[in-house]
C-alpha cells in the first residue's frame, strides 16, 4: 500500500461458496474455503472495531437457501401460470407455495430477461427457503435434487394437467444454485458485529457491502451496498455530497394504512 492509497473492503458475501448443479445433477457440497469470509476473519483478528464474521458465517443451516433458474424452449409454462394467477407475466408478484416443505417461491419476470434472449425462449426463476427438508412429492431434500427433480416438485404444487406437466419437463432446463450464506445478514447478531463503514479514526480503510453497519437501512438490497460505498468514498475523501437519508416507510401514515389493509386481506 502506498501512503495515499485508500482500501475499500467488501467484508463477507451473501453469495460466497455458492455451488451450481445442473438439470441432471444436484449442486456439489460447498467448498471448505470461503474466500470473502476468510479475508474478513484475517482483518478482524485481534481487533474489536472490525466486526465479528463468526456471527454470520457459522450458521449455514440457518442462512442457506437454494435458487434455480429455468430456461424454457416452450412458453407453455408461463402461459399456464398467467391463466392460473390471472396476472400477465411480469405483472404478478412472487408466488410462494405456502404448503411446500421447501417453502418454494417462483418468480416470472417480464420477458425477455436477458438482452440476447431468443424470442421463443422464456426464463424464470425461484427459490426454496428450507432446502434441507424432504419435499412434498420428492422424498429427499432439495439440496440433493437435480434441476429436473426440482421442476417436478414445483409442478406437483400447481394444478396443471399431466400432458402440460410432461411438456414443461421435456422443454425446460433447470439449473439449481445452493447459496450457504444468502440470508446470513438476517441472523441474530450484536450491534457491533458489523463494522462501521469507516471505523473510528480510519483515514484510508472502509468496509462496504452487506455486512458493514448502516443504521436504519435494510439489507439484501443493492441500495444498501451502494449506500456503504457512497458513505465510504464521501467520508474518506471528505466530500460534501453524502447519501440521502434512509427513507423510513414505517413513519409514513400512508404506508402504515396500506400495511394494515394488507394484514387483513383475505
Ligand atoms: C438470488 C438473489 C436475489 C436478489 N434479489 C434482489 C432484489 O430483488 N433487489 C435487491 O436490491 N437486491 C437483491 N439481491 C441482493 C443484491 O444482489 C446484493 O445485495 C448486492 O449484489 C450486493 O452487492 P455488493 O457489491 O455488496 O456485493 P457483490 O455483488 O457480492 O460483489 C462483491 C464482489 O467482490 C468479490 N469478492 C469477494 N471477496 C473477494 C476477495 N477476497 N477478493 C476479490 N474479490 C472478492 C465477489 O466475487 C463479488 O464480485 C439479491 C441477491 C440474490 C443472490
Automatic annotation (TrEMBL):
Molecular-function GO terms, alphabetical: FAD binding; oleate hydratase activity
Top-level taxonomy: Bacteria, Bacillati, Actinomycetota, Actinomycetes, Kitasatosporales
Top-level taxon in the UniProt lineage: Bacteria
Signal peptide: none
Protein name, UniProt field: Oleate hydratase
Gene Ontology terms describing biological process: fatty acid metabolic process
